[in-house]
TrEMBL record:
Keywords: Hydrolase, Metal-binding, Metalloprotease, Protease, Zinc. Residues 2-136 form the MPN domain. The keyword Nucleotide-binding does not apply. GO terms for biological process: proteolysis. One of its GO terms (molecular function) is metalloexopeptidase activity. It comes from the Archaea. This is MPN domain-containing protein.
Length: 136
């Protein structure tokens, strides 16, 4: 399960709305657990993809700086998020091919209708869906 504080969830939705038709992305921070993680903060990272309307690629230098900041603040990296402006909330073939952080959550916020967030954990051979909960 992946749980979010209301503020963290809302920050992803706001970031996604601000991106318009472009995918946005970032890091989920909080308390990491192998079976259950809790997100208390999110940190946007620039989408450096050549085609940000259909792909995301986190700027590597900015990503490392954000991870350092998260850990220096005493939090864990819980996973990553990105948006699918036209939906759906499940990972694309490209998302699956590019996932590398085994055991971490990959949250996808879709905007095809009401904003909705789905999440998957990368298990090495593929993604396993996980329940999303929002506090507050």
């Amino acid at each position: 399960m992946l749980s979010f504080t209301r503020d963290a969830y809302d920050a992803i939705v706001r970031h996604g709305h601000g991106g318009g038709d472009r995918e946005v992305c970032g890091v989920l921070a909080g308390d990491y657990g192998d079976g259950e993680s809790h997100v208390t903060d999110v940190s946007p990272v620039e989408n450096a993809a050549d085609t940000p309307q259909t792909r995301y690629a986190m700027d590597p230098e900015e990503l490392l700086a954000v991870i350092d900041h998260v850990e220096d603040a005493g939090s864990d990296v819980v996973g990553f998020y990105h948006t699918h402006p036209a939906g759906p909330t499940h990972p694309s073939t490209t998302d699956v091919d590019r996932a590398t952080w085994r055991g971490y959550s990959y949250a996808i916020c879709a905007f095809d209708g009401h904003p909705f967030l789905g999440s998957w954990r990368w298990r090495g051979g593929g993604f396993a869906g996980e329940r999303v909960a929002i506090e507050g």
